[in-house]
Every structure is written in C-alpha cells, then in structure tokens.
Amino acid sequence: MNSDEGFDSLKLGSVDTASIESYYDDWADAYDQDLQEWDYRAPAEAADQLASHLSNISMVLDVGCGTGLFAKALVSQCKCAITGIDISAASLKKARHLDIYSDLYRCDLQQPPLPFYNSQFDAVASVGVMTYIAEPRALLTDLCRIVKPSGHILFTHRDDRWKEQDFDLLMQELEASGVWEILDISDPRLYLPLNAEFGDDIKVVFAFCRVC
Fold first, then answer.
1. I need a labelling partner for 73 at 20 to 30 A (CA). Which of 31, 66, 80, 134 fits?
2. pLDDT of 52-67, one tens digit each?
3. CA 1 from chain center: how many Å?
4. Cα separation of 199 and 193, whole Å?
C-alpha cells in the first residue's frame, strides 16, 4: 500500500487518513447495500463470537464502526451499550440514524492514544479496519489500555495482510509483553466472496483475545 497513490481500490487499500475518509464518505450511502450484495459476513460472525462474553450492562467500543453493521448484529443478541468511532463523518451520520449507539465520535485511528479512559470498556471489536492502520501494534496496545482486565478484544484482518505484516509474530509478542492472552485465531474465512476484486482469493482472519 502506498498512501501517495490515494485510495481507489478496496483490494489495494491505503493507510492515508485523508484518502480513507474521503473514500468512505463518498461510499456511505451505498455501503450497506453493496456489502450485502458481496455477501459480507464478518460483522455478524464477529457479533456471534463476542456476544456470549457480554451482558446487558457491558460497555463495548466499536472501532471503525462505519455505518453500524457490527452494532446492528450485536444488539440483536445483547442489549449492551455500544460506543462507535470512525474517521468518516458520512458513515457516522448513517450509524447515528440507527439509534443503537450510546455515543459516536469521529476519530483518527492512526493517532493513538484513543480519547478514552483506561479500562473504560468491557470489550472492543474492530471489524474490517486493520487494512488501513499503518502501525497496528500501537493501536492494538492502546485498545488493551482502554479495556478492563479480563475484558475482550476481537478484530479481523485480511489474510494476505496478516501474512505480509507477520501478524502471528505480533500477536505472540503482545502476549509475551503481558497485555493480552490469545484465545483464538481463526482459519481464514470467506471475506467478500461476491466482490470481483476479492472473490475466493482474499479471506479474513478473526483474532480474539482476553486483556490481562
């Protein structure tokens, strides 16, 4: 990924904040329909995995919430309080119309620390976001800061980026540093199977950890 080239392809992606913001602002109105047509399953699958570890008094942060696909899936199983953050104001506007978030904030995920207290949340979920993060170690470490001890972090990452960035090693290094315990790293699953750029070639990995 080269941020100097802007962002005109989901497959290539970008780590340039301004390009990402513009791309998702422009896409916000069609986003939900497009992803439905591409058979995007990750938000529902992430909600299924996290919901059993939550209660109706849990506080959850939806990192890179977009238009609210993950939150919609989660509240169908658990009436917890969900805060959402995203760089795209247009996506946040769509999410606000759902009336399921406790709070929504525009936030640049490339610039941790995030604007939250230590141990503020019971869980954090980040679905479809890591592709756009230039320094994933910094973001993941900060997510551990804002989650209560024994709380959970669930995130997804494309399997091609996972390999390129040696995420197996990063996960193990963070575990060795004492910030989390790895509970599960899934086998790659279908990501956007009906999208011409992705098809069966690019899959998604789910990582699930307990904060120490």
1. 134
2. 999 999 999 999 999 9
3. 19
4. 4
Helix (H) or strand (E) holding 34: helix 17-37
pTM over 0.70: yes
| Residue 72, H or E segment | helix 69-75
Mapped onto helix, strand or coil, the DSSP state of residue 164 is helix
Amino acid at 206: F
What are the structure tokens assigned to 207, written together? 């990582």
Please answer whether residues 72 and 79 qualify as being in contact, where contact means their C-beta atoms are separated by less than 8 angstroms: no
Check: CB of residue 94 under 8 Å from CB of residue 31.
Answer: yes
Helices (H), 147-202: 159-164, 167-176
Does the bond joining 193 to the residue before it have cis omega, within 30 degrees of 0? Answer: no
* Dist. CA 14–CA 106, nearest whole Å: 19
